[in-house]
Amino acid sequence: MERPIGQILRELAEEEPGRPAVTAPDRTVTRAELERRSNRLARAYADLGVAHGDMVTLALRNGAEFVEACFALWKLGAVPQPVSWRAPRIERERIVELAEAKLVVGAAPEEHPGRATLPPGFEPDASLSDEPLLPDAIAPSWKAGTSGGSTGAPKLIVGTVPGVFDPENLSSPFMRPRETQLLPGPLYHAAPFAWAFRGLLLGHHLVLMERFDPAETLALIDRHRVDCVLLVPTMMTRIWKLPEEVKASADLSSLKEVVHVAAPCPPWLKEEWIRWLGPERVQEFYAGSEAQGITIITGEEWLRKPGSVGRPAMGSQVRILDPVTHEDLPPGAVGEIFMLPEGGTGSTYRYVGAEPRRTVDGWDSIGDLGWLDEDGYLFLADRAVDMVITGGANVYPAEVEAALESHPAVRCSAVIGLPDDDLGERLHAIVETDEDLEEEELRAHLEERLVRYKIPRSFELVSERLRDDAGKVRRSALKAERIERPARAGEAA
Questions:
Q1: 96-105, 121-130, 304-313, 356-365 — which is least confidently predicted?
Q2: Is residue 106 part of a domain?
Q3: What is the CATH number of the domain that holds 39?
């Protein structure tokens, strides 16, 4: 039976108060401590004006503080709205305005004039009660993530699922009660957020890393007898490249599942992990941040269907449509991937600051091209949009280009993804200018406007026009040209 998130935490604390709930680099918090600290924090937030339905922007690092803040908000019926703690002020301001955030946690007062703010490390007044808040509130949305958006402006992806959960309904095959999970990825991203908190509501012990480190990941699996870990292919690559003696020194016998998400996994890498851990322990799911649908594939299935990202799961459906006519295509034919969740159109998300990128009869485009085989397994061919996935993070070129073109010496720009053995793709910026710009000047300009992972790894200065008479940039042609030729003279790598 579905119950308010705050009620579930209280039940877990009453059931086993001393069991660890969160282990972070700085401290471990038991279930009872998480319950009490989030109660007191909820009262502190309420004193600052946070009420039912309000969004609160969280600009916090991975840690117990992030988890406590989310539970405090759910207990008030408010909506956590996480952003990167490293996001520049300009980017965060635009997100905060979209959210109409009642409070910004992890920011200084001068960064958001006219809004309530709390610094990182905030401790509520000890005089505030840490007893449960009754009656139990239900947030209208359990989360509101962010995306750069294909227009170059940020948007909010507001989940339409309210702040309730059913611990008895194990809808995900990768989620079991009372396990220990390791989370190396940032909680402000959609998949790590969902993975972490759904696990906590099933009684998991959540082990958080502030920053991914390949050797430390293996050490933490060994030390905490971790059952499951969520990775992206870049993390898998960096772990695999560790010296053999480092990999062999960690006891991974407790590990039931490595689940990877966020970006296509190179077949050679997947094969190596399956050979290392066994196919029964390597799982994959494919979905968008909007949760329009999901496909899942086990390691055993992948060996039979190499390259596939699985079949539709958890009630979702997949169609492959002709990008022009929108007609359904037969098995084996490449087209645009459309998905529909179990609850139907609009049952998983709504945008603030944007419109759905592409819909047909209520089905959402996932932004990729692919095909289904005769058995209903999905294979990816390419991305239909220009989004670049670098290190497991989604970057929309238009957002980076908009920041570049705010520099007075930049006439035009095109941002593309180039193959990278470590990141999957690295961001490369082609900058149209007549001036003798330095790479350091461009980097400094972008660091004031974009979070670090959105800043290109390489820059190329050109004088020829990048856009045609219709104002279009052919990114696919620019990308193909640079893959086929060596770097030009004067290109900064």
A1: 356-365
A2: yes
A3: 3.40.50.12780
* Opening angle at CA 23, ends 17 and 27, nearest 5: 95
**Strand arrangement of the beta sheet that strand 79-82 belongs to:** 79-82, 55-58, 103-105, 116-118
Residue 130 has pLDDT above 70, yes or no: yes
The pairing of beta strand 294-297 with beta strand 424-432: unpaired
Both ends of the chain: CA-CA distance in Å? 55
Distance CA 22, CA 27 (A): 8
* CATH number, domain with residue 423: 3.30.300.30
Average pLDDT over every residue of 23-40: 97
Say what the alpha-carbon torsion angle 196, 215, 420, 273 is, to the nearest 10 degrees. Answer: -80
Q: Which of 266, 291, 306 is the last residue of a domain?
A: 306
Report yes or no on 244 lying in a domain: yes
| Residue range(s) defining the domain that contains residue 231 | 3-306
Res 268 pLDDT > 90: no
Q: Which residues of 47-74 are buried (b: 16+ CB within 10 A; e: fewer)?
A: eeebeeebbbbbbbbbbbbbbbbbbbbb
Stated pTM of the model: 0.86
pLDDT score, position 490: 43
Q: How far apart are CA 370 and CA 305, in angstroms?
A: 14
